[in-house]
Amino acid sequence: MDCFRAEAYVLTQLRQHLPPTLYYHGLHHTLDVVERSLALAAAEGITDPEALALLRTAAYYHDSGFLTTYQGHEEASCELARQVLPGFGYLPAHIELVCQLIKATQVPQSPGSLHLAQILCDADLDYLGRPDFWPISQTLFEELQARDLITDEQAWLQVQERFLGNHRYWTTSATQWRETEKQARLAEVQEKLAATQ
Questions:
Q1: Each residue of 51-60: pLDDT tens digit?
Q2: Residues 181, 131: contact at Cβ < 8 Å?
Q3: What's the half-sphere exposure (Cβ side, CA atoms, 13 Å) at 111?
């Protein structure tokens, strides 16, 4: 399987064809998820080259469905993977695993006990427990506003409060790295909400 050509293909598609109003789900997010997936995989002791390659492929393709649709983009991402990955030497079993990983990231996340899926899910929402949470969450607010999916700042804070309150990290490493900061972000959201009441 030629992972580098598979990755180069999807990167070209994302660069050239993603809608410009994907302020959060843009190419920068995909690259961040790839980087965080590999960091988490290393911390979680994943050393098998094939497993790492398939995790990487899933990270590159996980939001490629935004090329064609906003709602249900995970399924569209899998459709693209099934369409193009055989041409890069991926076997059916490889492609099904890639799709399983991608589908696990659909909110609410459902990686089950599959370690690679847990890693990809944690990488996808890594920012929830990072210092750059506020600027990143602002890009998601703007993206949702551009699609008339959120009305105002107050509604957004309520969504954030629910999301942060219900979210969990799945891997030991992500929990150690991000959970404390995520709880601090939740407290900040609640403070902002209280100030607007």
A1: 999 999 999 9
A2: yes
A3: 19
Is the Cα torsion angle 179, 180, 185, 188 positive or negative in sign? positive
Give the count of beta carbons closer than 10 Å to the beta carbon of residue 193.
15
**Structural tokens at position 134:** 């506020």
DSSP codes joined into one string, the chain: --HHHHHHHHHHHHHHHS-TT-SSSSHHHHHHHHHHHHHHHHHTT---HHHHHHHHHHHHHTTGGGGT-STTHHHHHHHHHHHHGGGGT--HHHHHHHHHHHHHTSSSP--TT-HHHHHHHHHHTGGGGSTTHHHHHHHHHHHHHHTT----HHHHHHHHHHHHHH----SHHHHHHHHHHHHHHHHHHHHHHHHH-
Radius of gyration for the alpha carbons in the chain, expressed in angstroms and rounded: 17
pLDDT for position 82:
98
pLDDT at 4 (0 to 100): 96
Structural domains in the chain, CATH included, are 3-196 (1.10.3210.10)
Residue 78, token pair as written in the block: 């899998």
pLDDT digits (tens, 9 = 90+) for 72-129: 999 999 999 999 999 999 999 999 999 999 999 999 999 999 999 999 999 999 999 9
Q: How many CB atoms lie within 10 A of CB 22?
A: 20
